[in-house]
Design brief:
The complex is a heterodimer of chains A (104) and B (165). Chain A is an all-alpha fold and 104 residues long. Chain A has one domain: Helix Hairpins. Chain A is built from three helices and no strands. Chain B folds into two domains: 113 residues, Up-down Bundle (Four Helix Bundle (Hemerythrin (Met), subunit A)), CATH 1.20.120; 39 residues. Helices cover 75% and strands 0% of the residues of chain B. Chain B is an all-alpha fold and 165 residues long. Classes of the chains: A mainly alpha (104), B mainly alpha (165).
Chain lengths: 104, 165
Amino acid sequence: MLNAAVPLSWYLILSAILFALGVAGFIFRRNIITVFMSIELMLNAVNLSFVTFSYQFRQVDGHIYSFFVMVVAAAEAAVGLAIILTVFKNRSTLMIDEVNSMKY
Amino acid sequence: MTALFFLVFAALAVFCAINLVVQTHPIASALSLIGVMGSLAVLYLQLGGEFIAAAQVIVYAGAIMVLFVFVIMLLNAGAEAATFQVSRIVKYFGALLLAAFLGLVSFIIQGALPRSDGVIFGAFQGTTLDVGRKLFTTYLLPFEVTSVLILIAIVGAIVLARKEV
């Protein structure tokens, strides 16, 4: 069994599992940095789907899409972490529950 | 061998992802995320994405995670304080529901996908040559737009993080 080829659906199921865990972390974590890392986990899960379908169609387009996702993630990380720094400078907290002055 | 590699690294990725969600300290979460990215790089290589596997290690695990760890160290972020109390039963029931949901999703994916031969290492190689050729012909415009995006990100990050004068 261990020498058999891996069904393509297993990769997609793994991608779904990682994405769901990322959503769970995004919803339940209170630390803004951990929430941000959960978003990165979701992006990684989507990348795995892209590469899997790229294998299925024997085209490299999926690789290019996931490359673009990586570039966007890098840009997002730079800006997002700068925002986190600014929030921490003004509020001295990283808990998203305490950054709620827009609600009232 | 392919199945063995897949099972080992898929299990590692899922374990690290669960660890990311349940750990309260951001550094532990960051290290788990690096574990996820490393295992995913192996899976990309298995699917014939040599360029994307290298980019995963260099860009994601190398550059982005260093930025994360740097910010965690800079802000001296400690363990997360529990702001609202959740009973133990609710936590386990939630985990159980998540598992049931994932089982349903797996069942649907398994049923929706046409039967294929499965992944054999080396059956498809998306070499760096192919990726580069396509990137600079078919996807030239998105590639150029990407550079504008990065420029905006650089300027935005500097404006946001600069010292007020």
